[in-house]
Amino acid sequence: MSGKPRLTYLNGRGRMESIRWLLAAAGVEFEEVYLETKEQYDKLIKDGSLLFQQVPLVEIDGMKMVQTRAIMSYIAGKYNLHGKDLKERALIDMYVEGISDLMQMILMFPFSPPDAKEKNLESIKERATNRYFPVFEKVLKQHGQDFLVGNKFSWADVQLMEAILAVEEKVPAVLSGFPQLQVFKTKMSNMPTIKKFLQPGSPRKPPPDAHYVETVLKVFKK
């Protein structure tokens, strides 16, 4: 077995994408195993690989980790992306929680019934522009630094960059009223590890399509 983390999930974004982002931002190469059938998923449960019978599953440092937040917290700690002290860590966790609330709406969007898609898209736009992005615009402006916490790249910056791009895919002009976030996005895009992850052929997954939705429903059907 190589020393690379091994990620088990579907061949799509879902709850694994934020983990891919964080590993890539830390400059860590990883391997992926894709679930395509319910039988593969059931076998993982039967083998005892999934503590709560859920994926994502990340095998790292001899552990089989589940639960997205726990996995990301471990990666952030291991690669020094979790702040220099308890106060910074608390801020990072707080920002990450907020971003996760917005990302949850984006995560569920592909599974919206056709007649609810327009309404759900409007909700994403409204939450991003009125609740979440104003917070980060203010944080960046108030302390006048390149990054959200201290002046050091952290897990919160990675999460925010992922969220900005995910919302922009659906609402292209969403940053028009947020000059600080526009600058932040440009700087993040030019960080070597993130720039590499944004190139074609990287492990970054495309926006979910009908095939991905179909596979999710097939693998996780009761």
Automatic annotation (TrEMBL):
PROSITE patterns: GST_CTER (PS50405), GST_NTER (PS50404). GO terms for biological process: glutathione metabolic process. One of its GO terms (molecular function) is glutathione transferase activity. It holds the Pfam family GST_N. The keyword Transferase applies. InterPro entries: Glutathione-S-Trfase_C-like, Glutathione-S-Trfase_C_sf, Glutathione_S-Trfase, Glutathione_S-Trfase_N, GST_alpha, GST_C, GST_superfamily, Thioredoxin-like_sf. Residues 85-209 form the GST C-terminal domain. CDD domains: GST_C_Alpha. Its EC number is 2.5.1.18. Residues 3-83 form the GST N-terminal domain. Keywords: Transferase. It is an enzyme of class 2 (transferase). PANTHER family: GLUTATHIONE S-TRANSFERASE, GLUTATHIONE TRANSFERASE. Belongs to the GST superfamily. Alpha family. This is glutathione transferase. The lineage of its organism: Eukaryota, Metazoa, Chordata, Craniata, Vertebrata. The gene is Gsta3_1.
